[in-house]
Each structure stands twice: as structure tokens, then as C-alpha cells.
């Protein structure tokens, strides 16, 4: 395929990953029905053989089935070639999502993930969401023990506030912070990114293609299956969608001028944020995977970056569909001021 996937040091604790990773959630849930296992295993193998070795999952994806899928895909010598990132902390209870960060739960979740993945050690273990009832120092204390026991190598946080990142890092070094970051979602730039850079923490942008909208535009919404959770996203509805169509059209025009695809342009913008950034676009199709790694060869001028920043500024609508009523044990602020810790 001709694309050389560079390696980067993610954070300052020693973890080395591919400059672009692979988000695996959509293979098992959220974006329509689960995809056929043999096809997903073939896709994972294609990724690893192409140099994309940073694989992202979570115990809540499925739940559980995505970790099991990854475990099957990594048999036969594949495990040694990859960096597995998984997460804990979100459980489902009575139709609501509950956040858990108690030490006993941290340990049991880790043990269960090791079994499903069929590995002895998890490379990067994230706190998926922050349990506001449990001091982050308490959760981190147990994670530190798991590192000392050799069950995990590095610790990460997802959707945490800057102050939580600092407090966690003081207990045990944080290697990576995972947050949504794209032309579609830039709220991390104010506090999260500077905090990570000050502390030597790598940044892992999830949904770098705006849940697929930056790849295909409004046709994405027309083709979603009934059980696709993106149907509930504010950005895909009403006047927000009308405004966001214009953003996509301009990205498409710029991509055409550059001789790349809209996906590649949007991903290249994320890559140009720095060498401490490894986005994890997800896909379930080999053709889309090949297109995504092509973004690594797209170079953007400062003028092009400025044009893209200007487009990002006119995106309309909240980035998440989660309302406070869908969470237990989580102080969810209004969506427009989403800063993490939930």
C-alpha cells in the first residue's frame, strides 16, 4: 500500500505506538449491528501488517464482545506486535450508565479484561470515565498496584478534567489522555492539551473523523441503521445539520484541491497538532482503513491549517447525546460546557 506508518513515543513513560491507531468499538456495537467476526479479524490483521499496531477497545464495548474479538485476532504471534489499550469504569445498570472507580472494582475489571483479551498484561489501561464519588487518588492507587504486579504497563485517563489529570499524575504517572479531538470537537485545546504537554502525557484523539461525518458528510445520516446511536447526536439534527453540511462541503472542496479525500484532510489536521498525538479512527472496512492511513502522507501548510480552524469554528450543536438523566454517579454539566470528569 506504500504508506509508511511512523512510530511515536506516547507520553514520557516509555510507551511507543504507531502514529495512528485503530479504534475497534464500531466492530461490535454503537454504529449499527455487530460486524461479522471473520471480517473484523481480517481487518485487524491488515492493520497490524500495515504498521498500525495501537489497538483501542474497552470492556463496555459490546459489552465485553469487543475485547473477546481482539483476543481472538491476536493469537498466533500477533500479540507481540501490538499495543493493546482497553478501558474500565462504565457499567450498565437498569438502562443507565454507571461510573465505577472503587479499588475492588478496578481490580476485578482488570482481571476480567485480561481473561477476555487472553493476555498476561494490558499495555495501556484507561479510566474510561471519572467516578465523582471516589477521589481519583484512590482509583489511581489501585492502578499503581496493578502496574507493580505486572498486569498493566501504563495508565491512561479518558474524558478527565485538567485538575483530575494533575491529581492522578501525582499518584502515578499518566501516559496518555484520550478525548474527542477533531475539526468537529476542539474543547480540549483550552486546558487539556496544555496540561498534558506540561506533564509529558500523550494525547489520543478518539472520533477524529467526527463520528464519520467528516468522511462522508450528510449522506452518513441518511444511511444509519435504526440502532445506530449517532441518530441521537445533536449535530446530526435540524438546523445544526444544515450548518454542518456547509462545513463538510468546504472540507470536500479543500480535499479535492489537495488531491486527497475529506477523511484524509480531517485526519491530517489532527496529525499536524503534534508528535505527541496518536488519533484512533475506527472503521469496519479495509478500504476505509487504507484511506485513513493515507492521511499520514498529507502535508498541510499553515494557511490550510488556518482555513480548517476557521471551518471548525462554525460547527453547530453539542458533540454528545448524553444527558444527565442517563448517568448514575456522575456530575454531568450542560453539554455545551463538557470538560470531562463524567
From TrEMBL:
Pfam families: Aldo_ket_red. The keyword Metal-binding does not apply. Residues 23-311 form the NADP-dependent oxidoreductase domain. The keyword Oxidoreductase applies. GO terms for cellular component: cytoplasm. One of its GO terms (molecular function) is oxidoreductase activity. InterPro entries: AKR, Aldo-Keto_reductase, NAD(P)_OxRdtase_dom_sf, NADP_OxRdtase_dom. This is NADP-dependent oxidoreductase domain-containing protein. It comes from Erythranthe guttata.
Amino acid at each position: 500500500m506504500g504508506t509508511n506508518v511512523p512510530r511515536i513515543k506516547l507520553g514520557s513513560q516509555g510507551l511507543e505506538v504507531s502514529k495512528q491507531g485503530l479504534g475497534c468499538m464500531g466492530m461490535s456495537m454503537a454504529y449499527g449491528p455487530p460486524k461479522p467476526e471473520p471480517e473484523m479479524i481480517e481487518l485487524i490483521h491488515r492493520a497490524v501488517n500495515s504498521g498500525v499496531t495501537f489497538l483501542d477497545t474497552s470492556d463496555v464495548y459490546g459489552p465485553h464482545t469487543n475485547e473477546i474479538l481482539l483476543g481472538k485476532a491476536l493469537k498466533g504471534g500477533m500479540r507481540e506486535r501490538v499495543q493493546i489499550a482497553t478501558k474500565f469504569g462504565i457499567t450498565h445498570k437498569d438502562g443507565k450508565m454507571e461510573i465505577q472507580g472503587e479499588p475492588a472494582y478496578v481490580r476485578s475489571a482488570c482481571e476480567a479484561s485480561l481473561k477476555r483479551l487472553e493476555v498476561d498484561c494490558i499495555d495501556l489501561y484507561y479510566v474510561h470515565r471519572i467516578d465523582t464519588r471516589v477521589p481519583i487518588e484512590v482509583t489511581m492507587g489501585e492502578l499503581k498496584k496493578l502496574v507493580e504486579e505486572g498486569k498493566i504497563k501504563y495508565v491512561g485517563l479518558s474524558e478527565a478534567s485538567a485538575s483530575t489529570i494533575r491529581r492522578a499524575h501525582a499518584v502515578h504517572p499518566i501516559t496518555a489522555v484520550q478525548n474527542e479531538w477533531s475539526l468537529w470537537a476542539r474543547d480540549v485545546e483550552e486546558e487539556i492539551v496544555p496540561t498534558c504537554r506540561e506533564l509529558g502525557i500523550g494525547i489520543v484523539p478518539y472520533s477524529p473523523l467526527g463520528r464519520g461525518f467528516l468522511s462522508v458528510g450528510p449522506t452518513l445520516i441518511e444511511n444509519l441503521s435504526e440502532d445506530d446511536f449517532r441518530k441521537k447526536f445533536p449535530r446530526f439534527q435540524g438546523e445544526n445539520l444544515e450548518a454542518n453540511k456547509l462545513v463538510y462541503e468546504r472540507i470536500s472542496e479543500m480535499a479535492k484541491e489537495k488531491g486527497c479525500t475529506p477523511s484524509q484532510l480531517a485526519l491530517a489536521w489532527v496529525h499536524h497538532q503534534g508528535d505527541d498525538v496518536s488519533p484512533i479512527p475506527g472503521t469496519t472496512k479495509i478500504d476505509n482503513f487504507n484511506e485513513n492511513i493515507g492521511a499520514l502522507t498529507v502535508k498541510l501548510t499553515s494557511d490550510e491549517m488556518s482555513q480548517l480552524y476557521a471551518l471548525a469554528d462554525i460547527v453547530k450543536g453539542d458533540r454528545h447525546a448524553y444527558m444527565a438523566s442517563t448517568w448514575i454517579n456522575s456530575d454531568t454539566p450542560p453539554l455545551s460546557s463538557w470538560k470531562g470528569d463524567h
